[in-house]
Amino acid sequence: MKVARNDGFTFIEMLLVLTAITVLMAVSFPSLNSVAKQKTEMYIITQLRNDLLYAQQYAMTHKTSVAVTFSENHPEYRITEITSEKTILKRSISSEWKFQLTTLTMPLIFLENGNINKAGSLLLKRKDRTYKIVFLLGKGRFYVQKL
Q1: How confident is the model at residue 37, as a pLDDT?
Q2: Residue 55 lies in a domain
Q3: Is residue 4 part of a domain?
Q4: Residue 116: strand pairing partners
Q5: Does the residue 3 lie in any domain?
Q6: Phi and psi of 47, rounded to 5°?
Q7: pLDDT value of position 64
Q8: Which of 120, 118, 140 is nearest to 132 (CA)?
Q9: Phi and psi of 97, rounded to 5°?
Q10: Residue 58 — φ and ψ, nearest 5°?
Q11: What is the pTM of this model?
Q12: What one-character DSSP code corresponds to residue 104?
């Protein structure tokens, strides 16, 4: 005589597995949130660095002076060709970030040879994070430093 076998899972077994998956997901979401914030932060810094290099290259290739203006009131910056007053780029960043001028006076000007007109630094701040952007005289170099 053959006994009929049901090779399925019981309702309680499925509930236990679903509960375990839910607990694992709940534990992993806070860490994913911090990773997402970190990636967004790195994206903003990389984008700013690339935009400044673009302003410098634009000045050299078009043989014109280019002004970069950082807004302290709004989280944005603007790149403008000085001779024609044409806006080359305007970039807004997340509202939780803020530019704070320290020794840099506005506007920052990239000359036709790629150098800047004056040295200085500014801060890019968020509640828990601060970056210092330092512009050096000679060859228009700058660097971003995490404080």
Answers
A1: 81
A2: yes
A3: no
A4: 110
A5: no
A6: -65, -40
A7: 92
A8: 120
A9: -100, 155
A10: -60, -45
A11: 0.74
A12: -
Which range of residues forms the domain containing residue 140? 11-146
Q: Is residue 6 part of a domain?
A: no
What is d(CA 141, CA 114) in angstroms, rounded to the nearest whole number? 9
CATH number, domain of 84, equals 3.55.40.10
SS3 content of the chain, % helix, strand, coil (to 5): 35, 30, 35
Give the C-alpha separation, 132 to 147, whole Å: 7
Cα dihedral 49, 105, 100, 135 in deg (nearest 10): 30
pLDDT under 50: residue ranges of the chain: none
Q: How much is the CA Rg of the chain, to the nearest whole Å?
A: 26
Q: How far is the C-alpha of 121 from the C-alpha of 132, rounded, in Å?
A: 7
Residue 5 has a pLDDT of: 61
Which DSSP string do the residues of 106-131 spell out, in sequence order?
A: SPEEE-TTS-BSS-EEEEEE-SS-EE
Q: How does pLDDT run across 97-127, given as a tens digit for each residue?
A: 899 888 888 888 999 988 888 888 999 998 8
Q: Which long-range contacts (CB under 8 A, 24 or more apart) does 113-117 make?
A: 113/60, 114/56, 114/57, 114/59, 114/60, 114/139, 114/140, 115/139, 115/140, 116/140, 116/142
**Rounded to the nearest 10 degrees, how much is the dihedral formed by the CA atoms of 127, 133, 134, 139?**
180
What is the amino acid identity at position 57?
Q
How many structural domains comprise the chain?
Answer: 1
Give the H or E element holding residue 3: none
